[in-house]
Amino acid sequence: MNKSWKSYKTGNFFDELVSPAGKPRVAARRAVNMLQELSGEEMAARRAAAELAIKEMGISFTIYSEGKNIDRAWPFDIIPRVIPGRDWDRVSKGLAQRTRALNCFIDDIYNRQKILKDGVVPADIVLESGNYKPQCAGVSPRYGAWAHICGTDLVRDRDGKFYVLEDNLRVPSGVSYMLENREITKRVLPELFENYSIRPVDDYPAQLYATLASLSPRERKRPCVVVLTPGIYNSAYFEHSFLARGMGAELVEGPDLFTDEDDCLYMRTVDGPERVDVVYRRIDDDFLDPEAFREDSILGVPGIMRAWKAGNVAIANAPGSGVADDKVVYAFVPDMIRYYLKEKPALASVKTYLCMHAQDREDVLNNLDKLVVKPANESGGYGLLVGPHSTKAKRDQFARLIEKDPRNYIAQPTLSLSTAPTYIEDSVEPRHLDLRPFILSGRKTWVTPGGLTRVALVKGSLVVNSSQGGGSKDTWIVEGSK
Fold first, then answer.
1. d(CA 79, CA 35)
2. Which of 285, 304, 282 lies closest to 293 in space, CA to CA?
3. If you placed Cys at 214, which of 151, 267, 442, 447 could pair as Cys (CB 3.0 to 4.6 Å)?
């Protein structure tokens, strides 16, 4: 056995591959046994092969730092995460349930607002949110689906149970890295795939196209679908181009599109204007249409909101869907499931303190050293406080921020995030991780088998975002394992 595995200790955490007794878990046994037999030189060679593949494939992401855009190679760990199929089936059903309820909520908010009138969700936290867009009132997209692509972040606590950490319903990113992680793993560890039945993920672009095509306002054999990107300087541009290519769709920027007097949307081509049926937009609401939102936006398309409201084009995710992408609204999702679906939530949420409530705020301020504090609408791991790893000065700063704007902050217990063996320098060490599956909603609902596993590469860190120094690894959903 490779000596770096002999010293592997799971600590006081649930480890995805190794039991507390130091034995491989059933689903991961063959993978762990094979990896343990690789010498240190062989492991290093596989990692080098992965790094070379990442460079050859051009897999990168962008970090915004000190006003600069820094392109970096995708940080990848070669040891896969393994989840039994039976476990995932339960999680998948819970994700589909949660997404249905969220879509019901968004549709209700922009139409009847029944859930607000019935007092299930406080009206002020919704209607006063910056993500509530009055311009979307009275619209009900096809199938009642607003968040057609949802990225839900899951974590496992010490009990090994999956919990929902947050929902990403505006322009969730990361799915291209999920697909590339699988491709890289196949390249550098092909023998691992010989004795496993691993659920495939490479059909995601086809599933995405089918979902988008089902939204088309025109009955066509192959609707015109475009991916609307802010451009090459966006941190997720690699993903925009990757998905457009995978779907056989056009990758466009705002100036490539225009609307006519009949409120139809067209794409400029060398052969003349071509009518667009579906826009998979990867730009924020505020920049989508200078007529409806920010007048100074040069990223969007003048009149696209008129075309959408007239039913002449579908937009995914629909404008205004961010009203449910708020960490304060997150706290009410279990109530939404019971209210709209008349079902018990199949996935547990993490206990959440709303600083807008006086008692919650007092509890948070008295326990900042034990909690994770998050702003309601930030993403990418920015603007949060991880209490146990913070300084007194940082906690004092957050106390002032909370007291100044309590509506904008929530707090959650510091979870004992699960770990997985990760190849760090020349040793195998446990690192904390989370999981972002993707849920597609259109004519049907479809959940990715697994998702994007993000890893905190810094020892002891709980921040997994790539923009904050995190990495990633392939996620296997394997059949025939308990």
1. 8
2. 285
3. 442
473: β partners: 77, 453
Pairwise CA distance, residues 384 & 367, whole Å: 15
Can you state the percent helix, strand and coil of the chain, rounding each to 5? 35, 25, 40
How far is Cα 296 from Cα 339, in angstroms, rounded to an integer?
40
Query: Cα–Cα distance between 97 and 93 in angstroms, integer?
Result: 6
Q: What is the largest CA-CA distance in the chain?
A: 71
- The helix (H) or strand (E) run that includes residue 5 is helix 3-6
Q: How far is CA 363 from CA 250, 328, 330, 359, 390, in A?
A: 51, 16, 19, 6, 18
SS3 assignment for 37-74? CCCHHHHHHHHHHHHHHHHHHCCEEEEEECCEEEEEEC
Tell me, what amino acid is at 47?
R
SS (HEC) of 160-214? CCEEEEEEECCCCCCHHHHHHHHHHHHHHCHHHHCCCCECCCCCHHHHHHHHHHC
Separation of alpha carbons 101 and 106, rounded Å: 9
What are the Cα distances from residue 16, in Å, to 3, 23, 43, 87, 278? 20, 11, 20, 12, 40
- For 423, phi then psi, to 5°, come to -85, 105
pLDDT confidence band for 66 (50 / 70 / 90): very low
Distance CA(433)–CA(447), nearest Å, equals 20
Segment 262-293, tens digit of pLDDT: 999 999 999 999 999 999 999 999 999 999 99
pTM assigned to the model: 0.93
What pLDDT, in 10s, does the model give residues 188-209? 999 999 889 999 999 999 999 9
Cα–Cα distance list, 423 to 15, 76, 183, 311, 327 (Å): 15, 10, 18, 51, 33
- Return the structure tokens found at 401: 């921020």
**Rounded to the nearest 10 degrees, how much is the dihedral formed by the CA atoms of 322, 325, 331, 337?**
70
Q: Please tell me the distance from the alpha carbon of residue 433 to that of residue 322, in angstroms, as a whole number.
A: 25
Residue 63 has what pLDDT? Answer: 57
Give the whole-angstrom CA distance, residue 430 versus residue 249.
40
Specify whether the CB–CB gap between 364 and 353 falls below 8 A.
yes
Using alpha carbons, select from 442, 438, 439, 440 the residue that is nearest to residue 141.
Answer: 442
